[in-house]
Design goal:
The chain is built from one helix and eight strands. By secondary structure, it is mostly beta strands.
C-alpha cells in the first residue's frame, strides 16, 4: 500500500464536558481506496465546511486539518447527551514515492471529504507491447 496512517492524537471520550469537547482533537474516520491510477482518501467531516478544511503536503506527509464550530446553546436548554464532535481535528498520512503529490485534488460534499492522490507515472501499471522479430 502506498500510504500508512498516522494519528496525531487519540480519540477522546464522547461524554466530556462542553469545554473539553471544544479543546480536544478528533480522529475522523478515513477510508483509503487504491485504483490502478490513484489512491482515494474518503474522510467523514460532519459539520466542517470546505473553507474550514486545510489540506497540506510537507516533507512527504499529507495532513488534513479542520475545525467544526460549536453549535449555539439556547438559554434554558439542558443537554442530556452530547456526542457530536466540535473543535479541531487532524489526520496525517505518510506518502510513498509512488504518489504524485503535486497533483493531489480535494473536494468536500455533504460532510464527506474526498482526496484523489494520483500515482506517479512510474507507479502506474502499463502494458508492454511484445513485438515479433
Amino acid at each position: 500500500m502506498t500510504t500508512c496512517c498516522q494519528m496525531t492524537n487519540g480519540q477522546t471520550n464522547a461524554a466530556a464536558t462542553a469545554t473539553e469537547r471544544e479543546t480536544r482533537t478528533y480522529r475522523p474516520a478515513v477510508d483509503v481506496i487504491e485504483t490502478a491510477d490513484s489512491l482515494r482518501l474518503v474522510a467523514d467531516v460532519p459539520g466542517a465546511r470546505a473553507e474550514s478544511i486545510d489540506v497540506r503536503v510537507e516533507d512527504g506527509v499529507l495532513t488534513i486539518r479542520a475545525e467544526v464550530p460549536r453549535r449555539d446553546v439556547q438559554e434554558g436548554v439542558q443537554w442530556r447527551l452530547r456526542e457530536y464532535g466540535v473543535g479541531a481535528w487532524e489526520r496525517s498520512f505518510r506518502l510513498g514515492d509512488d504518489v504524485d503529490s503535486s497533483r493531489i485534488e480535494a473536494a468536500c460534499r455533504d460532510g464527506v471529504l474526498t482526496l484523489t492522490l494520483p500515482k506517479a507515472a512510474h507507479a502506474r501499471p502499463r502494458k508492454i507491447e511484445v513485438r515479433a522479430n
